[in-house]
TrEMBL record:
Keywords: Chromophore, FAD, Flavoprotein, Lyase. The record marks 319, 372, 395 as: Electron transfer via tryptophanyl radical. The lineage of its organism: Archaea, Methanobacteriati, Methanobacteriota, Stenosarchaea group, Halobacteria. Residues 465-474 have a biased composition (Basic and acidic residues). FAD binds at residues 213, 225-229, 285, 288-295, 385-387. Residues 248-282, 454-486 are annotated as: Disordered. This is Deoxyribodipyrimidine photo-lyase. It comes from the Archaea. InterPro entries: Crypto/Photolyase_FAD-like_sf, Crypto/Photolyase_N_sf, Cryptochr/Photolyase_FAD-bd, Cryptochrome/DNA_photolyase_1, DNA_photolyase_1_CS_C, DNA_photolyase_N, Rossmann-like_a/b/a_fold. Belongs to the DNA photolyase family. Binds 1 FAD per subunit. Pfam families: DNA_photolyase, FAD_binding_7. GO terms for biological process: nucleobase-containing compound metabolic process; response to stress. Residues 1-126 form the Photolyase/cryptochrome alpha/beta domain.
């Protein structure tokens, strides 16, 4: 008998650790609510996790078993459960973040002391930290080189869910409510959780948007991204399953072009072009999956980046850190419409479109001159998909302190970003109702309007809290001082 300890792998299919456990005996599935981990959680993520756990438990119950649910410190709970169920081994999938590694080391020691075996299995990403390195065996700090190797490496196929006869006939307690875990229901409308919901998102994406991902992914109203980030964070779907679907999407394009009737040469050429575009688009999506793995490696080898700059400057960056400006940013009341729309999407949906994450992060660090750690903490509090590696990577990129970071002198202009990626101000109007009756032109010129015009067009919407051009100059000076150039 063995325990499978579910953590960030809230699924049964394509679960390497679970499959390995089931191959060698009967499995008792377990989930532990750990107070130390919960202390870092936020209500949107707790909501998503509880819903995913409810689906997981239902699956086990349908298959003659159950999910044992415990509350406490895993290093105490797991040896006790192993003893109670006469299990000689505990199996779990690796989590590469610093906190999890610290916890897992303590669990390993406790199991060793109790004489219980354990297997810690690589599962969450395709290629483990340390498996893709420079020719000198060093971890990559530049994504492009990482990606070149990552894309060529063979990928494993998904694993099947375990057979019911491999699951122990056990009976677990009911799941706690969100309230019992010490959290309020989130104000945000968190997306549906569980493997069925994740598969639905993956299927829908691979049927359509994956082929226009390359072109449309930066436009928040084009619905061109997969929305799988929270699923990947909690492991409600396996990475091999996602990757296989993308390969099938590629193959479908090739099949379609093979079956096209021969036309004249001009038609054939344009068909080839369309096929290439489709394949490139799928690969662009795969390259985002590789970013996730790149940042996982970065965090694994540099756990201190959670609170420290990856790239140190000669001197400390003298952040301005004005509390009122930070608050206005958090509330989506900066008077920069595209920034405010992003920040309000975050509160309403516990999610924000990637382009908007880049815009609001640039605005916080380079217009408000607020330390990226404040932004990271706010995202951590509100995002359902908050993932230490990706969130940290994104913030340090925007703040020009990260691995492949934006050079410090690349400063997004929030007006141009709005005009380019939300030309009709559709996204802005969706999240900033004060601007619902304004024209797109007026919205994109908000910073240039007179006080009277602003009052006439949208009296409830704030005027810009800072002047972008002035702040741009201040940001450049701030970074130059940190570099020792001034
Ligand atoms: P898609 O475009 O469909 O991408 C597919 C998957 O690839 C994503 O689900 C994600 O797992 C991965 N991915 C995509 N872009 C990136 C990226 N730049 N870095 C790493 N992985 C990526 N992503 C998170 O998963 N959690 C976070 O906490 C997070 N915080 C971010 C903070 C900032 C400041 C920035 C700039 C980006 C952050 N990202 C984060 C990356 C990215 O914004 C989200 O992964 C993406 O918006 C999620 O939507 P999607 O699933 O539709 O993405």
């Amino acid at each position: 008998m063995q325990l499978h300890w579910h953590r960030r792998d809230l699924r049964v299919a394509d679960n390497r650790g679970l499959t390995m456990a089931a191959e060698s005996g009967t499995v008792v599935p377990v989930f532990v609510f750990d107070d130390e981990i919960l202390a870092h959680a936020a209500s949107p993520r707790v909501r998503f996790m509880l819903d995913a756990l409810a689906e997981l438990r239902a699956w086990y119950r349908d298959h003659g078993s159950d999910l044992l649910v415990a509350h406490g410190d895993p290093k105490e709970v797991l040896p006790e459960l192993a003893d109670e169920y006469d299990a000689d081994r505990v199996v779990w999938n690796k989590d590469y973040s610093g906190l999890a590694r610290h916890r897992d080391a303590a669990v390993r020691r406790a199991l060793d002391e109790a004489g219980v075996g354990r297997d810690v299995v690589h599962d969450a990403i395709h290629h483990e930290p340390g498996s893709i390195t420079t020719n000198d065996g060093e971890p990559y700090s530049v994504y492009t080189y990482f990606w070149k190797k990552w894309r060529k490496r063979e990928k494993e196929s998904p694993y099947d869910a375990p057979d019911a006869d491999r699951l122990a006939d056990v009976s677990g307690d009911e799941l706690p409510s969100i309230d019992e875990l010490g959290f309020d229901e989130p104000d945000a409308d968190v997306q549906s959780a569980g493997t069925a919901a994740a598969r639905k998102r993956l299927d829908a994406f691979c049927d359509d948007a994956i082929y226009r991902y390359d072109e449309d992914r930066d436009y928040p109203t084009r619905d061109a991204t997969s929305r799988l980030s929270t699923d990947l964070k909690f492991g409600t779907i396996g990475i091999r399953e996602v990757y296989r679907a993308t390969e099938e999407a590629k193959a479908a394009v090739a099949d379609e072009s093979d079956s096209e009737p021969d036309g004249d040469e001009g038609d054939a050429e344009s068909n080839d072009e369309a096929t290439n575009d489709d394949v490139e688009s799928v690969e662009e999506f795969q390259s985002q999956l590789a970013w996730r793995e790149f940042y996982t490696h970065v965090l694994f080898f540099n756990p201190e980046v959670v609170s420290q700059n990856y790239k140190e400057y000669d001197h400390d960056i003298e952040w301005r850190n004005d509390a009122d400006e930070l608050q206005a940013w958090k509330e989506g009341k900066t008077g920069y419409p595209i920034v405010d729309a992003g920040m309000r999407q975050l509160r309403e949906e516990a999610y924000m479109h990637n382009r908007m994450r880049m815009v609001v992060a640039s605005f916080l660090t380079k217009d408000l001159l607020v330390d990226w750690r404040e932004g990271y903490a706010h995202f951590c509090e509100h995002l359902a998909d908050h993932d230490t590696a990706n969130d940290n990577g994104g913030w340090q990129w925007a703040a020009s302190t990260g691995t492949d970071a934006q050079p410090y002198f690349r400063i997004f202009n929030p007006m141009t970003q709005g005009e380019r990626y939300d030309a009709d101000a559709e996204y802005i109007k969706q999240y900033v109702p004060e601007l619902a009756d304004a024209t797109a032109d007026t919205i994109h010129e908000w910073h240039e309007l007179s006080e009277m015009e602003r009052e006439r067009v949208a009296p409830e919407y704030p005027e810009p809290i800072v002047d972008h051009s002035e702040r741009r100059e201040q940001a450049l000076s701030m970074y130059k001082r940190a570099r020792g150039d001034d």
